[in-house]
Amino acid sequence: MIQTQWVTQQLRQQWPSLEIEIVQIHTTGDRVTNLPLSQIGGDGVFVTEIEHALHEGRIDLAVHSLKDLPTQQPDDLCVLVVGEREDVRDIFVTNQPFTIADGRLFPNQPDAKLSVSPRIGTCSLRRTAQIREFLPQAQILSLRGNVDTRLRKLEAGEYDGIVLAAAGLHRLDFVERLAGRMTYFPLEMMLPAPGQGALGVECRNEPELLRLLAPLQNQEAQAATSVERTFMRHLGAGCYLPVAAAAQIRENVLSVQGLVISLDGERKIRVQQSLPWTSNSTIADAEALGVRLAEEALTRGADRIIQEIIPIREQVQSHV
Ligand SMILES: NCc1[nH]cc(CCC(=O)O)c1CC(=O)O
């Protein structure tokens, strides 16, 4: 809703006479919070009902967290990335203060639980695999629900730490509530999901709707997220595999880092690519960079890791 309110406010500014009605749609992903997402339908659990409403004409625009959108887009629906991209990083939240240094976690009190076998909450294979890399002794426990629910479960003592997207915590204004017990993961420790922190507005491929959205579009964020999402799609990864990517445009260079990591965190394939980015560059150039990045990962054995995980993910917890 916060994301949607931001989009409607921007639309009103651009098109003062536009009539806007917000239609709230509860998706399967919102309703079923006691099961891992892979067991309630895999890719698109936050999206299917909404795309249905777009197709039926019950709504004209749909606001999504881009990372919740499957990388295979239906042909007749477009996604425009709008607004400034939020912080792409993940955040570690605990009940007690701690410090991250040299890729390790250090509780600030010497008797803190985190040093023994910390219980870490997440349903994301991507986060699970990366946590195992730097906290091999951690117990990874399933955690679902909206951001507020997840924080309450942490605060009730069900977990010693949980991992959340900075974007969600920033948008919901939770940073103050978490002062002293949250730390931003450096990208070297925890690479985010493709599209994390970006807002996508989806619409039917109709000129009138695209014209409404055009002034809101963020070309650079569209290009960067295209690289990340193409990387994931080209790996054949779907939404629910330990695949991470972060791209950015700085000083006329589009650069991206990608990661495919085995579930135990022991084998990781880290890849990097970049491309000069000029005013003539196109989304097709960004997609080509994503393909190149995926090809590099595949050459280095990413397909073996992905093939291993596809059967397992039906049984284990999973999420973006
Ligand atoms: N998994 C659900 C989800 N989808 C988007 C965000 C965060 C906002 C964003 O990445 O734009 C979250 C919560 C989280 O991962 O902590």
UniProtKB/TrEMBL annotation:
Q: Where is the Porphobilinogen deaminase C-terminal domain?
A: 226-298
Q: Which top class of enzyme applies to this chain?
A: transferase
Question: Which GO biological process categories is it annotated with?
Answer: heme biosynthetic process
Show the GO MF annotations: hydroxymethylbilane synthase activity
Coiled-coil spans in chain: none
Ranges of residues in domain Porphobilinogen deaminase N-terminal: 1-208
Pfam families in the record = Porphobil_deam, Porphobil_deamC
Q: Name the chemical reaction catalysed here.
A: 4 porphobilinogen + H2O = hydroxymethylbilane + 4 NH4(+)
The protein's matches in InterPro entries, at most eight in alphabetical order, are given as:
HemC (IPR000860), Porphobilin_deaminase_N (IPR022417), Porphobilinogen_deaminase_C (IPR022418), Porphobilinogen_deaminase_C_sf (IPR036803)
List, alphabetically, the PANTHER family matched: PORPHOBILINOGEN DEAMINASE
User: What's the stated role of this polypeptide?
Assistant: Tetrapolymerization of the monopyrrole PBG into the hydroxymethylbilane pre-uroporphyrinogen in several discrete steps.
Give the family from UniProt.
Answer: Belongs to the HMBS family.
Q: What name has this protein been given in UniProt?
A: Hydroxymethylbilane synthase
Q: Which organism is it from?
A: Tengunoibacter tsumagoiensis
